[in-house]
């Protein structure tokens, strides 16, 4: 064991993948790296550990807090320090013999010649948006016969391209000339990632902000990129292995488990690239003026809380609420109901549950600011309820552990994994309910089969009932993956053919009547929406109160309890699907609330009620029925109305 730096020893574990002679060659090579930020710092450290000992490095910037997630040199001690100085120090700490020439003003038209002098290979790590400098340095590399490689961190993967002397050049591949600044960014991006593997999981596209020259980036992408760039450089320097030149490109994505080799003869002039450019222009550049900046007014404290709370779920994503801001610490929730047009809400209590869910979400959201909520109810008009919320500073309030799940929580209507809930999972869910509420589990195959039969029967009531036709017709956003005010088709959990059948049926009630009479038209939706997923779950549950809910307040309080339970499933990484309509029809029958003119429908609902009552005691105390399963987050979901639409303008 030696504690003295010794080149041979320090890099001896490279030997095997390279020979001793090759390692000696690497020691003599000089690499130029432009940019020590996002990926440049990782590139440098990788190449230093490969044993390369001479570098030309440029960067004019300083480290700051926002670099922390991905830049190798960014940490609390380096904030405010020159990136170049910090990275040189790190490189020297690895190999004290490194010979580094510094270009602290960054690279520009005046110093690029110098920057590339004596260089064996150029590794691109300029800021994505530094296109002028990039074009210039790649042009000079081509003129001087210097191999250049670019491995870009893209999402949780890397896309890489090489530009070898005498082969297709940067400009021939990207073809940027003659395009506007933003179009050039788009063309550069499309050329970098022809396989576009990252597209599948960009969860917040708004963070790709061309106008303000910002985009999301991860350390995983940076590290993968550096691993790849290091390997390309090594092959180029040692003249080993096949090095691909553009128009070939490679993209490895660790998130989607994919690796794609792309070939785009003509570069961005290739028809596939041209098509992608035209689509991208519409999608990304549509509303972008050349000087556009996002200049949105910062949200007030109440708006921040409500911006979170608006993600509370509501029946059919109706969001039957608006907010009136009174002053800096209080506001009124104006809650309406959907009884006029929704057969599942004839007494307004489904909406009142949602109002309670909203109130609990507000309390959870306020906790991030150390605030408690005090609320006063005005339920004199049941169809227009008012809840005044006061925010009260409270030192004992810590951010609620359910807070990060408020926006993530979503309905999973598809079949889920059936591995039983563990005792600790069940305990966490039971403990999420406040006093006065309890949960009954239905876990065995037998029990789940009973629930499957109940849901299958209940679906017949729903789908053959004229009174529900308009709700169903209007609530589905056909062909959509996301929907602000409805349920998108892809979140329904039916296959494409069944969706088309449903869309066709929902055009006209007569079609449903005929289909039901002669072709068992509701069979496929009932099997796909209810029967199969009821079995393919780990448990069904019924949330019950100690006594039957009768007042609006009872329902609002129940809503608060339900939201804690629901968010806890999200926290446990479980999928969740409400099965609320059997509860609703059983209540209508119990309380003689007329919900259908069709006797056959009422008879079927009675059958469902009997099945429900056979399942558990005190069904009248049941406030929420649903199922839980092992599931990833759904890829399709309802989103929400923007906050601006929910705040009443005074
Ligand atoms: C009180 C209440 C009852 C619900 N009942 C059902 C139901 O019976 N079936 C269903 O598929 N979804 C039901 N939902 C889920 C809503 O449709 C869903 O929350 C809404 O569309 C928003 O979608 P998200 O929860 O995925 O964000 C219910 C939601 C609430 C709040």
Automatic annotation (TrEMBL):
THIF-type NAD/FAD binding fold domain ranges (all copies): 12-261
Species the sequence originates in: Colwellia chukchiensis
Entries under Pfam families matching the protein: ThiF
GO function term, MF aspect, one: oxidoreductase activity
InterPro entries: Nitroreductase-like, ThiF/MoeB/HesA, ThiF_NAD_FAD-bd, Ubiquitin-activating_enz
Gene Ontology BP annotations: cyclic threonylcarbamoyladenosine biosynthetic process
PANTHER family xrefs: TRNA THREONYLCARBAMOYLADENOSINE DEHYDRATASE (PTHR43267:SF1)
Stated name of the protein: Nitroreductase family protein
């Amino acid at each position: 064991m030696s504690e003295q730096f010794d080149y041979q020893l320090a890099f001896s574990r490279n030997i095997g993948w390279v020979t001793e002679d090759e390692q000696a060659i690497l020691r003599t090579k000089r690499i130029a790296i432009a940019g020590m930020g996002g990926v440049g710092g990782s590139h440098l450290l990788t190449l230093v550990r490969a044993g390369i000992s001479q570098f030309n490095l440029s960067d004019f910037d300083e480290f700051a807090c926002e670099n922390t997630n991905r830049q190798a040199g960014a940490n609390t001690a380096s904030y405010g320090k020159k990136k170049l100085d910090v990275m040189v120090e790190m490189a020297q700490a690895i190999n004290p013999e490194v010979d580094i020439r510094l270009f602290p003003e960054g690279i520009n038209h005046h110093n690029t010649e110098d920057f590339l002098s004596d260089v064996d290979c150029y590794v691109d790590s300029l800021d994505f948006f530094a296109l002028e400098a990039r074009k210039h340095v790649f042009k000079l590399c081509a003129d001087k016969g210097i191999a250049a490689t670019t491995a870009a961190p893209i999402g949780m993967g890397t896309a890489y391209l090489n530009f070898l002397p005498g082969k297709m050049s940067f400009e021939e591949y990207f073809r940027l000339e003659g395009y506007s600044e933003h179009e050039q960014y788009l063309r550069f991006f499309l050329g970098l990632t022809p396989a576009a593997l990252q597209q599948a999981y960009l969860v917040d596209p708004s963070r790709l902000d061309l106008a303000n020259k910002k985009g999301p980036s991860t350390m995983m992408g940076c590290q993968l990129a550096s691993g790849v760039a290091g390997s390309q450089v090594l092959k180029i320097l040692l003249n080993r292995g096949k090095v691909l030149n553009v128009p070939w490109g490679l993209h490895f994505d660790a998130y989607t488990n994919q690796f794609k080799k792309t070939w785009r003869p003509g570069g961005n002039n290739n028809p596939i690239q041209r098509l992608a450019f035209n689509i991208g222009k519409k999608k990304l550049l549509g509303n972008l003026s050349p000087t556009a900046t996002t200049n949105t007014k910062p949200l007030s404290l109440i708006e921040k809380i409500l911006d979170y709370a608006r993600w509370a779920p509501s029946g059919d994503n109706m969001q039957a609420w608006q907010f009136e801001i009174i002053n800096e610490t209080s506001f009124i929730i104006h809650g309406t109901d959907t009884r006029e047009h929704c057969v599942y809400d004839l007494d307004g209590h489904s909406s009142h549950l949602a109002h309670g869910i909203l109130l609990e979400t507000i309390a959870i959201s306020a906790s991030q600011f150390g605030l408690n909520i005090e609320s006063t109810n005005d339920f004199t008009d049941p169809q227009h309820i008012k809840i005044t919320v006061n925010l009260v500073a409270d030192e004992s309030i810590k951010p609620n552990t359910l807070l990060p799940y408020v926006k993530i929580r979503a309905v999973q209507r598809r079949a889920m994994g059936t591995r039983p809930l563990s005792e600790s999972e069940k305990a966490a869910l039971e403990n999420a309910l406040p006093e006065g509420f309890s949960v009954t589990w239905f876990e065995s195959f037998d029990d789940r089969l009973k629930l499957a039969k109940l849901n299958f029967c209940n679906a017949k009531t729903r789908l053959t009932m004229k009174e529900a036709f308009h709700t169903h017709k209007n609530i589905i956003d056909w062909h959509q993956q996301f929907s602000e005010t409805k349920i998108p088709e892809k979140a329904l959990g039916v296959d494409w053919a069944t969706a088309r059948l449903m869309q066709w049926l929902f055009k006209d009630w007569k079609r449903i009547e005929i289909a039901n009479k002669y072709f068992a038209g509701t069979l496929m939706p009932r099997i796909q929406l209810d029967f199969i997923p009821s079995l393919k779950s780990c448990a069904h549950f019924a949330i019950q109160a100690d006594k039957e809910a009768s007042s609006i307040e009872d329902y609002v309080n129940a809503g608060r309890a339900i939201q804690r339970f629901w968010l806890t499933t999200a926290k446990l990484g479980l999928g969740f699907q409400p099965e609320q309509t059997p509860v609703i029809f059983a209540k209508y029958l119990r309380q003689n609330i007329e919900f259908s003119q069709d006797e056959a429908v009422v008879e079927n609902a009675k059958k469902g009620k009997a099945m429900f009552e056979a399942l558990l005691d005190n069904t009248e105390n049941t406030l929420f029925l649903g199922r839980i399963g092992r599931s990833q987050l759904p890829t399709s979901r309802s989103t929400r109305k923007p906050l601006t639409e929910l705040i009443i303008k005074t």
